[in-house]
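Predict the 3D structure for this chain.
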Amino acid sequence: MPKLLVCGRGGSGKSTLVTMLARTLGKQHKVLVVDADESNLGLGRMLGIRPPAQTLMDSLGGKKAVGKSLMAAMRSGGTEEVKMFSGNFTFGDLSADSVSWSGSVGLAQVGKVEHANEGCACPMGALAREFLNKLKENNDEWVIVDTEAGVEHFGRGVLEGVDAVLMIADPSYEAVLLAEKAAKLANEADKSFSVILNKVDESTEARLKEMLRAKKIEITAVLPYSAEVSKANLVGEPPAAESLQQTLSEVITRIIPS
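Done. Predicted structure below.
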């Protein structure tokens, strides 16, 4: 099954969508959520999963060790690959310290910013890219990647190891511009690209659709504003999205690459 990268602007609802998709898919499949946002602090609580004992970066010796591997590859002028894992691996090969499971849904964290002045997050991007490239899922398994706001993960090549890109767009001009940019970058990488509207009402939905279609971007699904989901986000609880189950199931069907 696919590896799915979820992107969007800050506050658009990326982590909420990741959570709802994971919980919906988890009813029939095994799902690994990969937290590739070095600043996200609340995804585990939203999923109802205690974060793993260590990040993937920590399991490989920390940021300095990963950065050393990245620098070696850069100095080679592209003749060497970034090598952080010895070979391909599956869900079952991941250590219990690096992945926390709650039933059929698991959570892995690439790495987090831990200290002031610790430097750029480039090693985390390189690690996310290699992890997704070498993780091989079975037919009944899904991978959902929660990314940082914007398009930096496109530049880092994180989408190299995924099958499809799903962008969430809220009613904002920035979201329209970002959707246009993300669609272009996904097309350059030959990845399936879909857009979901979020937090819209009747008026903003119509206008947002009009603006996106003017840029030749079609809409896969619409998630209306939900006071229920908003309240869950405020208190850090898993969003109860029973009213959105049909829409989420349709999204899952549509985003599977043909």
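The domain at 3-255 is CATH 3.40.50.300 (Rossmann fold).
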